[in-house]
């Protein structure tokens, strides 16, 4: 074992050191070399490794596919703990209409989705093609095309890093909301395995997202439209590939953290109307009619909230697909989708920060909307 690791790790089954850097471990492909990197092949190995490092006072970062991380170039003191597995998902419970499927944290997310579709289980198909691992899915409450993990979770196996206890918890303990859980931006717990409740009739979740629904021939009058899971997965993968959102080593548009900014939510009709007025002033009244703006529930005081499209605002603030701060910049917006910030082959974390700052500040100046980054930042920050 490397000197940065406690000796107890050498006797832990399923734990092995590697020489991977954070650039190797993240989909943005930026980040420096950690003090050490260890792979953990089972939930028990992952829990044991984290306990050993915590007991020794060694700073660590658990990496679950690295699809939602921006890591700095100077991270010498940090140990990267990587969840990996060769285990297949398993059915651990069933009733007349559903099954409970368990997958370890190191399972590649899209492998779980493909497995579920192969077995004609419904629920995960709209989340096809999302990079990362199963362990990261509840942390981020991943979602796409009208579906979110929060609607499918049965239980999460969680290592409490304060007590060292490994236990199954229910979704209501995680404060799940749009791209958020109380595990995100904190080090309080590590997900080691996840259970999902999926349907067994071979049909998808109701299709609510317009682009996907149109591709699958959903008509306006259909009530809770559903389609065979294999058809939905194929359509989702095609849509994501067209936006550079399916990983491809040869395509720099996929060297990204996916959707970099969350869709902004404002509270109250006055706030909504203020954004609308800024759009009309900058883009013309006709643009308002086509501007995506959707009801997003209410806040804790019962005030209505409204969600805007970050991608739409970014493009109309003057940042088209492929935009760069300067022509030779090593980072730029995807040539396929304005919401993805991409490494064009040689970017550093500071290049990503510079690009993100320019886009965020530009949208705020034009439309008065503050975009919030979706990734977790390690060893680097986006300054106000």
From TrEMBL:
Molecular function via GO: FAD binding; UDP-N-acetylmuramate dehydrogenase activity
Reactions accelerated catalytically: UDP-N-acetyl-alpha-D-muramate + NADP(+) = UDP-N-acetyl-3-O-(1-carboxyvinyl)-alpha-D-glucosamine + NADPH + H(+)
The entry's keywords: Cell cycle, Cell division, Cell shape, Cell wall biogenesis/degradation, Cytoplasm, FAD, Flavoprotein, NADP, Oxidoreductase, Peptidoglycan synthesis
Biological processes, Gene Ontology terms: cell division; cell wall organization; peptidoglycan biosynthetic process; regulation of cell shape
SUPFAM superfamilies the record matches: FAD-binding/transporter-associated domain-like, Uridine diphospho-N-Acetylenolpyruvylglucosamine reductase, MurB, C-terminal domain
Documented EC number(s): 1.3.1.98
Statement: the UniProt record of this protein carries the keyword Oxidoreductase: yes
Record domain FAD-binding PCMH-type: where: 30-201
Subcellular location: Cytoplasm
Active-site residue numbers: 179, 259 (proton donor), 374
CC terms in the record's Gene Ontology section: cytosol
Cofactor or coenzyme needed: FAD
Annotated pathway: Cell wall biogenesis; peptidoglycan biosynthesis
Short name of any one Pfam family annotated for the protein: FAD_binding_4
Main location: cytoplasm
Enzyme class: oxidoreductase
Its job: Cell wall formation.
NCBIfam families: murB, PRK13903.1
Family the UniProt entry places it in: Belongs to the MurB family.
Protein name: UDP-N-acetylenolpyruvoylglucosamine reductase
Source species: Corynebacterium variabile
